[in-house]
């Protein structure tokens, strides 16, 4: 089955960067192993958004883990969605939780967690964590592997 037959509009085609998260098209693909609990991890170590107060850029290391049910999030559409935050003004908590909720609405996973490890703003890092559901029994979930902010020390 081709990408277009699967209803995918971005995979295998040139795709413009959406100007904001609301314009971004997140797409899903069928889970090839819906009978198996396994963790899929997406990591974006150079996530960027805009502070809604100062209009200065904010940077984060995002780690998204989920156990799929019937659907997976298509990775190119996820990348374009995350990149669309570059011009979006929102606080760290809003960006992190909104991303998690939008993916949950799209793929209805058995479990999902997102860790937003934000670099310091005003001298203080802000880390944001959100989870949907419970980890299915017997599922191996590795640590997200991002060290707490330690400055120069």
From TrEMBL:
Record-listed substrate binding positions: 73-75, 92-93
GO cellular component terms, semicolon-separated: cytoplasm
InterPro entries linked: GTP-CH-I_C/QueF, NADPH_dep_7-cyano-7-deazaG_red, QueF, QueF_type1
The organism's place on the tree of life at top rank: Bacteria
Enzyme class (EC, first level): oxidoreductase
EC code(s) of this entry: 1.7.1.13
Single biological process term from Gene Ontology: tRNA queuosine(34) biosynthetic process
Pathway the protein contributes to: tRNA modification; tRNA-queuosine biosynthesis
SUPFAM superfamilies reported in the protein's UniProt record: Tetrahydrobiopterin biosynthesis enzymes-like (SSF55620)
Catalytic activity, reaction form: 7-aminomethyl-7-carbaguanine + 2 NADP(+) = 7-cyano-7-carbaguanine + 2 NADPH + 3 H(+)
Keyword Cytoplasm: yes
Keywords on record: Cytoplasm, NADP, Oxidoreductase, Queuosine biosynthesis
Active-site residues from the entry: 51, 58
A molecular-function term among this protein's GO annotations: preQ1 synthase activity
Keyword hit for Flavoprotein: no
Name of a matching Pfam family: QueF
Subcellular location field: Cytoplasm
Record family assignment: Belongs to the GTP cyclohydrolase I family. QueF type 1 subfamily.
Role noted for this protein: Catalyzes the NADPH-dependent reduction of 7-cyano-7-deazaguanine (preQ0) to 7-aminomethyl-7-deazaguanine (preQ1).
PANTHER family named among the record's database cross-references: NADPH-DEPENDENT 7-CYANO-7-DEAZAGUANINE REDUCTASE
Protein name: NADPH-dependent 7-cyano-7-deazaguanine reductase
Native species: Pseudovibrio exalbescens
């Amino acid at each position: 089955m081709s990408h277009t037959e699967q209803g995918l509009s971005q995979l295998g085609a040139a795709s413009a960067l959406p100007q904001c998260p609301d314009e971004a098209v997140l797409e899903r693909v069928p889970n090839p192993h819906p009978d198996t609990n396994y963790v899929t991890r997406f990591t974006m170590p150079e996530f960027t958004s805009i502070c809604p107060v100062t209009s200065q850029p904010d940077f984060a290391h995002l780690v998204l883990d989920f156990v799929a049910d019937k659907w997976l999030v298509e990775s190119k559409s996820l990348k374009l969605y995350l990149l669309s935050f570059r011009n979006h003004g929102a606080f760290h908590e809003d960006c992190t939780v909104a991303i998690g909720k939008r993916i949950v609405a799209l793929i209805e996973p058995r479990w999902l967690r997102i860790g937003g490890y934000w670099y310091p703003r005003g001298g203080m890092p802000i880390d944001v964590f959100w989870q949907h559901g419970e980890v299915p029994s017997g599922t191996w979930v590795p640590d997200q592997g991002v060290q707490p902010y330690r400055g120069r020390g």
